[in-house]
Amino acid sequence: MRSARRLLLLAASGLALSAGAFSVPALALAASPAAVQVEGQVAPSDPWAQSASDVPADPAVRYGLLPNGMRYALMRNATPPGQASFRLRIDAGSLMERDDQQGLAHFMEHMAFNGTKDIPENEMLRILERLGLAFGADTNAFTSFDQTAYMLELPNTQDETVDTSLRVMRQMMGDALMAPESIDAERGVIEGEERSRNSPQMRVLKTQLALLAPGQRLSQRLPIGDLEVIRTAPRERFVDFYDAYYRPSRATFIAVGDFDLDAMETKVRGAFADWTPKAADGAEPDLGQVQPRQPQTSIIVEPGVQSSIQINWIKAPDLDPDTFNERAEDIRRSLGLAVLNRRLGEMARADNPPFLGAGAGYQSLFDSLDAGVLSVSFTPGQWKRALETVEQEARRLTQYGVTAPELQREITEYRTSLQNAVATAATRSTPALAGALLNAVNSDTVFTAPQQSLDQFERIVADLTPEQVDAAVRPVFEGQGPLVLFTSPVPVEGGEAAVTAALEASRQVPVAAPADQAALEWPYADFGAAATPSSRTEVSDLGAVLVRFPNGTLLNIKKTDFRDDQILIRAKTGIGSLGLPTDRFSPLSLADTVLNAGGLGKLTVDEADRVLAGHVINTSVSQGEDGYVFSGSTRPEDLALELQVLTAFLTDPGLRPAPLQRAQTAYPQTLEQLTATPGGAFAVKGGAILAGGDKRAATPTVEEFQSVRIEPLREQIKTALASGPVEI
After folding, report:
1. E strands, 110-154, where?
2. Is the pLDDT reported for residue 308 higher than 70?
3. How many other C-beta atoms are found inside a 10 Å radius of the C-beta of residue 560?
4. Which of 314, 371, 464, 525 has the lowest CB atom count within 10 Å?
């Protein structure tokens, strides 16, 4: 099945934002091992994406095709050293199920671990555990709408570990037993998963799919399936699905790790060469067509969910190959949406904001439809203001476009992210690379190296104009609809008709052009004369250096090779949660909320973001048990600036009232959401119980949380930060 280039379902309460991988275009279509057909060669269900693209693939990946149609992609990577990640993807998921097989794609994923022709039931996991692979952490799998993937994390690349892991995966793919007694024993496990997933969020997802894709297969084939099928399906139905879709022409094997490519390729070809299909290839599903739609609203009331509205515009899916022109259009659209999302984020952080959070995105859903979406979350009862604000802000963007400074800022942010990826490319983690390759295969995109991505981006934005971005982003908010999904913990007054009418009324309100933003400069570059260390001690067994300064500050430095061009910083000071009272709630326990979102004394959070654009600066503050921890991560060229940011947070925190007010507004609904599930209820109540009633471990009540006032809290935080030595 050809998967869409963007494959993320839009959770009803979430935001839909995406960014792809990019590379330099070739002058002609790139050749691919899969594109060469030889006598006796079985064609795979999908060729490599680069065979139909002018985007060259990462040359570090070795692609191959077995005569039986199985594809493989191998990549050497030594982070961590001596380890490897295996992935085996089957090009089939719940969309391939017949009506009487609903849930069997996921059920089959379980059965693949429950005995094969040569490996008895219960022995497979023991074999892997003896090699050091823990079940769950190192041995796992998942089933989606359009794929089933099996994952092994190898603790070493010794021959025994590699050969045994390949043998196990080969057996799972082609020789699963599916014994009737094993199927019966597993039915209860699947039912238990269904019960645990039958949450408010799952019911919202079902409502969402029914709204977006009525009559299409996507809304009828959730991977968890149908309980009646799970309880009663005979072995023959499992065998039918397994033999039709677990076949080499639908399989892609991925190996990334610290190994010799030639040796691994020989092992892979040897392990899977004898795999042959047992039946005819399974049919590709009829996914249905996007039908003409009028404006429509669906409301789902579920106690414990976040109040949110999602406005969707749907259209037929874009199934064009992954080419340079497609990626250029994606980038232009992404930059325009980034401008809108930044505007919405600033509105959410303002005083008396119209909503708790909002965002816009564009996604493709499993070859079934494309959707432009506006999402907004708010406190119960405040939906009308939130709806009007996001609708009008999106229309402001499509009517007046992005400004040149806004576009340049997003280009700078995008470029910085890609540059950082290039700088750290040599120390990317093996599991992350294996996952990225798996995603590229599933989404029919060309897997590219970070440098290729950066080079292509530079070519795309070299002469980019705001008008080109405007043209790319306008279609996001066009199409069938708008289709509104309203999720609420309480009934909505006026129902669906009131929401539809409010949206239509908002669309008639004129909008003005956005106001220009004043230029800003970083005001925290000077903290006085540099101090001379009073002592310097080398700790050879730790490979660290300890530097003491006259004011008592202690600096600990350790050089590592874990990740190229990355510097991690932690500065600790003050009194942490151990200094809080044990018998009553302390407002100081909310210090994190005010510190992180309160900005600096001379800059708000959004102003600081504007000034720091183009730099790799990541900063957060948390209250630990024995102090406040200021954490940062950066690259060498931005180290001085990162230290200035951390010092500014320590010496001149903004401590503005708006973050506390927003948190207090959202807290009742947040607490209700948490207590709607057993795990959430334990998170709320369990801490204090396990701590013997210690209030420092207790979740505050709504009354306690909302009783906090910013003025005394501000003074308490300043006192706490000033009451201890600084250790970096």
Report:
1. 139-143, 148-154
2. yes
3. 10
4. 525
Of 141, 147, 105, 109, the closest CA to residue 7 belongs to: 147
**What is the Cβ-side half-sphere exposure of residue 81, based on CA atoms within 13 angstroms?**
3
Widest distance between CA atoms in the chain: 80
Question: What are the structure tokens assigned to 467, written together?
Answer: 């008008």
User: For residue 197, what pLDDT is reported?
Assistant: 85
Residue 356 backbone zone (phi > 0: left; psi -120 to 50: alpha; other: beta)? alpha
Distance CA 348, CA 357 (A): 6
Q: What is the pLDDT of residues 415-471, one digit of tens each?
A: 999 999 999 999 999 999 999 999 999 999 999 999 999 999 999 999 999 999 999
Render 633-670 in DSSP notation, one character per residue: EE-GGGHHHHHHHHHHHHHSB---HHHHHHHHHHHHHH
Letter for the amino acid at 379? T
Strand 535-539 to 544-548 pairing: antiparallel
Instruction: Name the one residue in this structure whose structure tokens are 């070809």.
Output: 269
Q: Which of the pair, 197 or 283, is modelled with greater confidence?
A: 283
Residues 141/112, Cβ–Cβ less than 8 Å: yes
Tell me the pTM: 0.86
Burial of residue 154 (CB within 10 Å: 0-12, 13-18, 19+) is buried
pLDDT of residue 38: 58
Give bridge partners of residue 312 from the DSSP assignment. 373, 483
What's the CA gap between 14 and 310, in Å, rounded? 9
Report whether the peptide linkage leading into residue 450 is cis, meaning its omega lies within 30 degrees of zero: no
H-helix segments, 401-494: 404-423, 430-442, 450-461, 466-473
CATH homologous superfamily for 65-272?
Answer: Metalloenzyme, LuxS/M16 peptidase-like (3.30.830.10)
Q: What CA–CA distance (Å, rounded) separates 569 from 567? A: 7
* Secondary structure (3-state) at 368: coil
Evaluate whether the domain defined by 296-506 bears CATH number 3.30.830.10. Answer: yes
| CATH T-level fold of 535-721 | Cytochrome Bc1 Complex; Chain A, domain 1 (3.30.830)
Residue with tokens 């009517």: 399
> Phi, psi at residue 557, to the nearest 5°?
-125, 130
Residue 101 has pLDDT above 70, yes or no: yes
Instruction: Note if the bond before 33 is cis, omega within 30 degrees.
Output: no
Angle between helices 159-174 and 123-130 (to 10 degrees): 160
Give counts: helices (H), strands (E), the chain: 22, 17
Residue pair 77/210 in contact (Cβ under 8 Å)? The answer is: no
Q: Domain extents for the chain?
A: 65-272, 296-506, 535-721
- Cβ atoms of 443 and 252 within 8 Å: the answer is no
Task: Determine whether 679 is exposed, middle or buried from the number of CB atoms within 10 Å of its CB (0-12, 13-18, 19+).
Answer: exposed
From first CA to last CA, the distance across the chain in angstroms is 52
Domains 296-506 and 535-721 share a fold: yes
What is the torsional sign of CA 115, 117, 123, 125?
negative
C-alpha 560/C-alpha 695 separation (Å) is: 40
- What is the amino acid identity at position 297? T
